[in-house]
Every structure is written in C-alpha cells, then in structure tokens.
Amino acid sequence: MDDHVRPSRVVILGGGFAGLFAARALRNTPVAVTVVDRCAHHLFQPLLYQCATGILSEGQIARPLRTVLRRHKNVQCLLAEVTDVDVEGRVVHAERPDGGTSELPYDHLVVAAGVRQSYFGHDEFARYAPGMKTLDDALDIRRRLYRAFEAADAATDPDERRRLLTFALVGAGPTGVELAGQIREIATRTIEREFALIDTDQARVLLFEGGESVLAAFGPKLSRRAARTLERIGVEVHLGTLVEHVDEHGLSVRDKDGGPRRFDAGTVLWTAGVQAPPLATRLAKATGAAQDRAGRIIVEPDLTIAGHPEIRVAGDMMSLGGLPGLAEVAMQSGIYAALRIRHEVEGRTRPPRPFRYRDLGSAAYISRGRAVVRRGPLHMSGPAAWLVWLFIHIAFLNGFRNRLGAVLSWLVVFASGARRERAFTSRRAGPA
Ligand SMILES: Cc1cc2nc3c(=O)[nH]c(=O)nc-3n(C[C@H](O)[C@H](O)[C@H](O)COP(=O)(O)OP(=O)(O)OC[C@H]3O[C@@H](n4cnc5c(N)ncnc54)[C@H](O)[C@@H]3O)c2cc1C
C-alpha cells in the first residue's frame, strides 16, 4: 500500500534504454525516483561499433545521465554498482565509487540492468576475443583495430604481418556484420594511403557464424543480400562454422563439413550470444522467479515477478514470450513499467493490460550506403535502406548536438572515408 505522507520511492536499477525511459515516464508522477547505474552515462549501444571504428566520439554515443534527466525534478542519479536486492526488506544494496555502500529503500523497483556477452561456457576466450557492450569495450576495440595496422607495418616477418592484418569476428548478427563492414572500410577507404610498408587493402576480415545465415533475424531474403554485400566488399563469410578455441594467435573452428580449421588472426572480436548478469540469478533466487536459458528473468505479462507486484523487470534482462533484445523493446517495456507504477500510485484499481510490444522493425548497417531494414512485410536493402537507417538513428540519438555531430561525421565518412575519432590510448589490455 502506498504511503500518502511521503512520496512512493521508486528505484530504477540501470540507466540504459529501459531504465531511462522508465524514469522519463515518471516525470509528472508524485514519486521520488532514484536511477542507480555503475556508469555515469546513458549509452546508445546500437552505435557502439561506430565509436569502436572511429566514426563517432565517446561523447556522441554516451551522454551523462544527469544531463539527460536534469529537467526531471523528481529523479536523482546515483553512480554505484548494485550488489544485491533485499527482497524482504525492500532495499537495494549498492557500492559507491568512494568505496562506501548505499542502502536504497524502495516501494517499487524497476530492474533494467541489461545483459552481458556470453561465451557459451568459455569465459577464458574473453581475454583474446573481447565483446562489445560498454563504452570501455568500444574504446578497447578501437585500440586493438588501429594498433593492429601499426603493428603490421612495423612487423618484419611476412607471416606475422599477415596474421596482424587478419581480423576475425565471431557471430554474424547485426554487431558482427556492422563491425566486419567497418573494418573493411577502414582498410580500403580510411587508411589505405597512410602506410608505407603494408597494403591495408589486403587486410582479411573473417566472419564466423554457427548458423546458416548472416543477420538471421532479418529473414532469408535480406540475409542473402547482406551476405552478398559483405562478400562484395571483401569480407570472408564462414557460415555453419563453430568457433572451438581462441588464443592469442587466432582461433580454431569446426566448419560445416565437420573439419577442424585453424585461422591465425591478430584481432578476434566476439559478438555472439548474451547472458544475464549474476545479479539476475541472485534476484531470481530471492524471489523464486524462473530464468530462461540465457539467465533472463521470466516475468508475468505485466512485467512483474510472480508474487512480487512491487518488482518489475524491463529491457534485455526480462524474458517474456521470446521478445528480442532490442532497444525498442527496452524503451517500450521501461515506459510500460513506469505507467503501471503511476497507476498504482494514483490508486487506479482496474487490472493492468498486459505488456504488448509494438514491433517498429529493425535496421542494420552493412557498409557505405548499404543497409537492410525490416518492418513487418516490408523488406528493404541497399541505398534506400541506408537512408532509412540514417533517419532512425538520427531520431533516436540523444541530444541535438549529438545528432548534428553524428550526421556530419556520417556525411564525411560517406564522402571521403575519413574518420576523425581514431585516437587510442596506450593502455595495454591483452594482445593486439
Ligand atoms: C553492440 C550492440 C549493438 C546493438 N544494436 C542494436 C540495434 O541496432 N538495434 C536495436 O534495437 N538494438 C540494438 N542493440 C540492443 C540494445 O542496445 C539493447 O536491447 C538495449 O540497450 C537494452 O536496454 P536495457 O536498458 O535493457 O539494457 P542496457 O542498455 O544494457 O542498460 C543496462 C544498464 O544497467 C547498468 N547496470 C548493469 N548492471 C548494473 C549493476 N549491477 N549496478 C549498476 N548498474 C548496472 C549498465 O551500466 C547499463 O547502463 C545493440 C546492443 C549492442 C550491445
């Protein structure tokens, strides 16, 4: 029952798409909202690959949460790592960056902590094949990519030079496809005249996929077109191929004929599979909630956890009727969770309508002027799809300056191949 003396306390765990849209939707509701996130920024994950490949800057895809929510007077932001939820006591436990801990009591909890990379039981691969989920990951990948060309130019052994100029991507979903296209573009259009000793055009980009198609979620027609476009720009696509081992020199696979094959590669990037973080398992144990195979929490149709109407799970961390892990699902579920809280606080008694996801379609960028777009029965590819991709991303990027800056960067890279954001730090984080 809500307390009428003080406003209800809403804690939102995570300031990604689900958490941010939940906080925004509570703007005119008499509740005190705390958004707690281990990062101080809201990250636009769909454009991480553009930051990693030097088109966009960190600031263009990540905005301070405090700035984004500055006009929301009932919202506080807290930079802290949530370590546990005391479900009985209704308290969130978090570790602050000053080393102290915070206890955040709540009347309503929205859990929107997203997912992380899955290595399908081989976490040891992470050291050699980083995934791309955070801003740190994108900057680490940028360092690995551009450093690989530098190292190849400095190498004297031709075999080592070839290895350094080989880039392997595991997983042909949108992120793998986008990164593969971008690496070929860097090699052929951005840095192709900058090195004296290497021909960057010779850089090999290998894309491994365990399934039978690239961009499987876009359907067979677009998938075939995407594969053709990738091959045209020089990406070697290996379908039906399972990666069995990754080490500092490359990777070993089992190809579709069952044969083992070894590929030496200087850079291996992992874009296959997701799993819920350990926090999801702790919460599931504490509430008795079931989890799906990826560890996501199985929620009721109104996004609550069964037996816990005060806890809602939104975004990538929720499992509901096979909904995909997409930004649009996260935004809509965050808004839905907030509206349910508002209705409860306002004392509305009608049983809530279940969460219904409105599929607005999806888009993936392949290479310069080439994308694929799927919306219901509409399937587009090529330059028209690229224009649609452009407008979708302009619409969803956060902040006017970011939109303007991004459009400028896209026009420059489209026209000349030049990328402004190629700087990387010398931080050592594993093999080049
Ligand atoms: C590389 C990449 C490309 C993508 N491309 C697309 C695309 O083209 N189209 C599309 O629709 N979707 C895309 N997605 C998926 C989309 O970004 C996600 O579906 C969406 O971000 C999910 O939102 P979320 O709020 O559930 O989780 P997230 O956006 O992951 O946010 C979770 C937040 O919780 C915080 N957090 C997690 N654990 C803790 C903790 N213990 N304590 C404190 N804070 C914590 C994190 O810091 C993060 O800010 C892509 C994702 C990635 C990684």
UniProtKB/TrEMBL annotation:
GO molecular function, one term: oxidoreductase activity
Reactions that this protein is recorded to catalyse: a quinone + NADH + H(+) = a quinol + NAD(+)
Segments traversing the membrane: none
Domain FAD/NAD(P)-binding: 9-334
Cross-referenced Gene3D superfamilies: 3.50.50.100
Keywords: FAD, Flavoprotein, NAD, Oxidoreductase
Top-level taxon of the source organism: Bacteria
SUPFAM superfamilies per the UniProt record, alphabetical: FAD/NAD(P)-binding domain
InterPro entries cross-referenced by the UniProt entry: FAD/NAD-bd_sf, FAD/NAD-binding_dom, NDH-2
Enzyme Commission designation: 1.6.5.9
Family: Belongs to the NADH dehydrogenase family.
PANTHER family the record matches: EXTERNAL NADH-UBIQUINONE OXIDOREDUCTASE 1, MITOCHONDRIAL-RELATED, NADH DEHYDROGENASE
Protein name in the entry: NADH:ubiquinone reductase (non-electrogenic)
